[in-house]
Amino acid sequence: TQSTWGRTINSWRQFTNRGLMAVFHDNIKLIDIGANLSDPMFDGEYHNFSHHPPDRDLMLQRAHSAGVHRIIITGGCLSDSLSTIQLARTINNSGCGIQCFTTVGVHPTRCDTFLEDPEGPEAHKQKLLDLIQNNLDVVVAVGECGLDYDRLKFCKKATQLKYFEVQFDIAERTGLPMFLHDRNTGNDFFEIMKRHRSRITGGVVHSFTGDAHELQNLLSLNLHIGLNGCSLKTPENLETVKQVPLNRMLLETDAPWCEIRPTHAGHSLIKSQWPTTKKEKFEEGKCVRGRCEPCHMRQVLEVVSAVRGEETANVAQQVWDNTMSLFFAQKKSV
User: Fold this and answer.
1) For the whole model, what pTM was predicted?
2) What is the pLDDT of residues 41-57, one digit of tens each?
3) CB contact set of 266 (below 8 Å; sequence gap of 6+)
4) How far is CA 210 from CA 109, 161, 222, in A?
5) Whether residue 256 has a cis bond before it, omega within 30° of 0
6) What is the Cα–Cα distance from 107 to 100, expressed in whole angstroms?
7) CB 107 within 8 A of CB 145
8) Helix or strand or coil: residue 59?
């Protein structure tokens, strides 16, 4: 509620003074291109069980303190996108210092929603298109869409293939870039992208975990590469990160997922830390252990910069420019 936001804005400095919020004395600006801020974890719910009060407001204050200026909230289906648009507007009116935007589209594992619409798949596509066109002040991309062959139990391959291609129609008609998902798809994802690439303004393959060959294929299509904690798991991942051209790189958290865990190859390169607590022993102002947050953009930036042997500030500035160019070229800064 508004009172909750106001209470947080007035009191967040006390958390800083108590050491519950990291303080950064630099001018680094970050945009988290993929965060699932509508996830129930930020309402304190884990696997349908409530463990603590909602703390989305304090989570956003941690992010702002870490230099996060903008967040793109990921939409995964029509109903989800409706919720993320509402959430973005609520946050933007809260005075928390962060601007939020959204994607609108259908995740590969949720493509059955096209078939489940009582009015039919074509009507469902039109509803997505209408939602975008009526909210262009906050909607910046079509997606999350693509293919995911690791989770075919949620949606059949044939359905994923068909409705991934349908979403190119939406991207072409709106002129928006695409927020893309690719998991264990062999050459299918690349071939579809190659066939339709001329129809879209651009796109980012988010949460990239592929090898050098996959990277070069995507770069040949002039796509951007989104890196998060899942991109930094293995020594092989880190070698691939070195090969991502800086002018094609975007950064994200995929919060509340994809944290950089202690078992990850990149974990030792983290510099910034926040006090954490288990969800069962929640303490207001602390991060929840195992739950990734937008403030962890700092950690992604630190690991990526260290792996590449580049200055953190330089990487941050180029990634900011890349992100603004892809998603915000037609939007005025606020």
Assistant:
1) 0.93
2) 999 999 999 999 999 99
3) 229, 232, 233, 237, 238, 260, 303, 307
4) 19, 20, 16
5) yes
6) 20
7) yes
8) helix
